[in-house]
Amino acid sequence: DTGVTQSPTHLIKTRGQQVTLRCSPISGHKSVSWYQQVLGQGPQFIFQYYEKEERGRGNFPDRFSARQFPNYSSELNVNALLLGDSALYLCASAPPMSTDTQYFGPGTRLTVL
Amino acid sequence: DQQVKQNSPSLSVQEGRISILNCDYTNSMFDYFLWYKKYPAEGPTFLISISSIKDKNEDGRFTVFLNKSAKHLSLHIVPSQPGDSAVYFCAATGSSNTGKLIFGQGTTLQVKP
User: What are the residue ranges in chain A where pLDDT is below 70?
Assistant: First the structure.
């Protein structure tokens, strides 16, 4: 079985640029969540989408946006990048009957210079 | 406001002995708790979970205990193996159904051969 996949693996951007990160959930999972993890901390919740609808949003500025496609894959967009956006961005998917148990992908390492 | 806390940044145990990782939470609305393991350059891997209607859940070498009155949970690994060396995160969620997991800061476990 293929797990959650994310692309790209690594990304380097400069301040002010925009970035798009991509995620494909485990087959059969309809829920996708995004988290930001900075060094030394636990993952911080950004968004959850279920059946293409936003179901939850964390305490992140409007520069962060996401969407979910009919095939349940998802994109996270971050505009006007700041140095502080440098982090590991994690995507997680959850099965329909147990959306609290989330399974994570390997993450995208974003570096903002 | 850290709603989920792992007060021990690191723990070192001998192979074959018991590892006990602790986690405290402040929000009484949390009703589902999870433990994840994370290796460097990988996403968190789901280990075990527990609902607030239980006080113990066991899966092989891993057992999670929940003390609701103390707002405390712990993960026991018996026997510990060198491959268990990783960062362990506890996470919690409530019945608000937003899919938001709140993570602790993590505890780095080192199992010495």
Answer: 1, 99
